[in-house]
Specification:
- By secondary structure, this protein is of the alpha+beta class.
- 37% of the residues lie in helices and 22% in strands.
- Helix 1 crosses helix 12, helix 9 crosses helix 10 and helix 10 crosses helix 11.
- It is globular, with a radius of gyration of 22 Å.
- About 11% of the residues have low confidence.
């Protein structure tokens, strides 16, 4: 019998494990819709050959003498993690969204490795995979890369023979190539800043040294601590733990690029502007007063070089708190404000500071982390991710991936998660909302489209994909509520 090994969990991964609550299960979830059925035997074969190469997916979490470890699961069985499901009748998008919402409201079984895949047969002529993986295993970008490493660039699966040396890099090489091309200027800046951070981490007491290394880092830490709580709106309500999930029809990526170029900004600026307009529209429809200082969203910021093969999982990202100017009416003015905010954040060390804080919280008492988490989560109203995907279509077991969606979990008292994912010439927008928050996810999807079309019209571009008629316009002069200023 082989010896069961244990590996201590890192401080950052332990932080995400401790954040798991009944109101906010810490799961990175995804929905992958394919245009043809996938036989369950073929799916399991791919998982055995590619997914389970990462040892973490065969390990469970154990606690001994107050310390937390990754331990090989002696009873591991793939059938415990892959399940077949069927939707009623000729099910459509609404039924799939309801199933995803139900699964995302449930917690993982901590007696086994913390991941599950549900295969939905006969969905719109193909199938759908609902994947849930606990955040303590890895960050969202790493898990997206792992899931996409299961795919091939053609319908014919490419299954090279295992090589003794660096097999994972061989599997991920094509994926690393397009991920490297997709690196934005913001991510490049994050990689450069992470070089400094990683060098500090290798020294004893690196977290304290991080604070004392430069005035800029100290200033960013002080700004984070003194930042006032986000204003009280309908977006921040007591959570009940039941989630509602929705995703929008795709935007044409070329349209988004042309809009960004016409506005003199980036694709990220453009999509953040569309999300800002969607939230503003939701508050207007709810007859809510618009805070005159806007709201903030927590944006994960990758600190792992994207051209680095994922030989080990784990969390290597920080969080940036981005102000969304929902108080601004005009799309051009909103875009300019977002562009200025993002340019300032790119020059900051906020992502590195939050990563260091998570590491410190994970190494300290559980009560300290929960109090710190409550403070930080009150500084934002939602989580928003924007991940670049493959430029060309990919295939899993010969079936073409038609539409992917990914969500990262919300922590603490945050009950809204928004996700933007680009794939094969399209941009997909999705949202998950706690039912304690009075918001219609599908309506917000429409508002996102409306907001982008409004910005494109202001930029003076003609769309390749014509805008579809949607909800009528609403009043543009909402009541204002003044925000409290920091002490």
């Amino acid at each position: 019998m082989s010896k069961i090994t244990q590996t201590p969990m890192s401080g950052v991964d332990l932080s995400w494990l401790r954040m798991d609550t009944p109101e906010n299960p810490m799961m990175v979830s995804s929905v992958l819709i394919f245009d043809a059925p996938i036989a369950i035997a073929d799916l399991k074969r791919v998982l055995n050959e590619r997914f389970l190469k990462f040892r973490r997916f065969r390990q469970r979490v154990v606690e001994k003498s107050g310390k937390v470890y990754w331990q090989d699961d002696a009873l591991f069985n793939l059938d415990n993690h892959v399940h077949r499901r069927a939707l009623p009748g000729n099910a459509d998008k609404a039924e799939l969204q309801a199933l995803v919402s139900d699964l995302n409201s449930s917690t993982m079984d901590f007696r086994r490795p913390l991941w599950q895949i549900d295969c939905v047969d006969n969905y719109q002529g193909g199938c759908a995979l609902i994947v849930r993986i606990h955040h303590c295993i890895a960050d969202g970008i790493s898990l997206v890369r792992v899931l996409l490493s299961l795919t091939d660039p053609t319908p014919q699966p490419h299954l090279p023979k295992p090589r003794p040396a660096r097999p994972k890099k061989a599997v991920l090489k094509p994926l690393n190539r397009w991920m490297h091309k997709a690196v934005s200027s913001a991510q490049v800046a994050g990689q450069q800043a992470s070089i400094l951070f990683q060098s500090l981490r290798s020294e004893p007491g690196y977290a304290l040294r991080l604070i004392g290394t430069a005035g800029d880092i100290t200033l960013d830490l002080l700004k984070l601590g003194l930042m006032p709580f986000d204003p009280k709106t309908g977006l921040r309500q007591p959570l009940c733990g039941r989630k509602q999930v929705a995703w929008a029809e795709a935007l044409n990526l070329n349209d988004v690029k042309r809009c960004a170029k016409a506005m003199g900004g980036t694709i990220n600026d453009t999509l953040l502007c569309a999300a800002t307009g969607a939230i503003r529209r939701h508050l207007l429809e709810s007859n809510e007063a618009i805070p005159d200082c806007g709201i903030r969203v927590a944006v994960p910021f990758n600190l792992r070089p994207l051209n680095q093969p994922i030989s080990e999982l784990g969390n290597q990202f920080g969080l940036m708190l981005v102000s969304l100017p929902i108080e601004i009416d005009g799309p051009k003015a909103r875009f300019q404000q977002i562009q200025n905010t993002m340019n300032e954040l790119k020059r900051s060390y906020q992502a590195q500071v939050t990563y260091s804080l998570l590491d410190l919280f994970g190494r300290g008492p559980d009560m300290l982390e929960r109090r710190a988490l409550a403070m930080l989560s009150n500084k934002a109203s939602a989580v928003l991710t924007n991940v670049p995907g493959p430029r060309e279509a990919v295939y899993l077991a010969g079936s073409k991936l038609r539409q992917p969606m990914f969500w990262v979990p919300q922590s603490g008292s945050i009950g809204i998660g928004m996700s933007i994912f680009s794939y094969a010439g399209n941009v997909y927008f999705g949202i998950t909302v706690d039912q304690g928050i009075q918001a219609c996810p599908n309506a917000i999807m429409d508002y996102f489209h409306n907001s982008f079309y409004e910005l494109a019209a202001a930029a003076g571009i003609e769309l390749e994909t014509p805008a579809k008629p949607r909800a009528a316009n609403v009043k543009t002069k909402p009541p204002r509520r003044k925000c409290k200023q920091p002490a």
